[in-house]
């Protein structure tokens, strides 16, 4: 069971965190170009948002499987603080993604009128489809995305370092 869970944990990290990290990193620049009129960037921004939202939600499997993995060999995993720190950091990264990054991406897409029809109407009705300062919005999203990506780099280092 340990080997199966370890393989699933690593595969989920690669399959879900890789794409969401790239999408989070590239979204701001594409939204900026879309705001300036690039049709290619409009499509890319939509795709990056869909990847962020879908893969971001699925990425919760990584810490969930990690916790399950800790129960396969309690003597090994429960004694090492790096695993506990990794779980805490991954939860922080996931909350940052769900609470901050995805809503800001959605706001920018709403301002560009790139959301699906129902979502667009809802965002406009709630007043969440406007961006008054694109430079500031892009900068803030880039900072949050950078923190998100840095957390996963730190977690990867913790996973492969034995100190």
From TrEMBL:
Q: Which domain of life is it from?
A: Bacteria
For this UniProt record, the keywords arranged alphabetically read as follows: Membrane, Transmembrane, Transmembrane helix
Residue ranges of the TM segments = 47-71, 83-102, 141-160
Q: What is this protein called?
A: DUF2269 family protein
Q: Which organism is this entry from?
A: Corynebacterium uropygiale
């Amino acid at each position: 069971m340990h080997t199966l869970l370890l393989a699933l944990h690593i595969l989920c990290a690669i399959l879900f965190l890789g794409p969401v990290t790239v999408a989070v990193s590239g979204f701001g620049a594409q939204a900026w170009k879309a705001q300036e009129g690039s049709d290619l960037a409009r499509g890319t921004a939509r795709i990056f948002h869909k990847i962020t939202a879908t893969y971001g939600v699925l990425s919760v499997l990584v810490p969930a499987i990690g916790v399950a993995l800790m129960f396969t060999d309690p003597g090994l995993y429960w004694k090492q603080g790096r695993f506990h720190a990794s779980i805490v950091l991954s939860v922080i990264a996931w909350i940052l993604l769900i609470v901050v990054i995805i809503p800001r991406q959605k706001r920018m897409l709403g301002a560009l009128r790139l959301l699906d029809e129902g979502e667009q109407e809802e965002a406009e009705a709630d007043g969440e489809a406007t961006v008054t300062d694109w430079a500031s919005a892009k900068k803030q999203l880039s900072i949050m995305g950078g923190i998100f990506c840095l957390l996963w780099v730190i977690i990867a280092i913790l996973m492969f370092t034995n100190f």
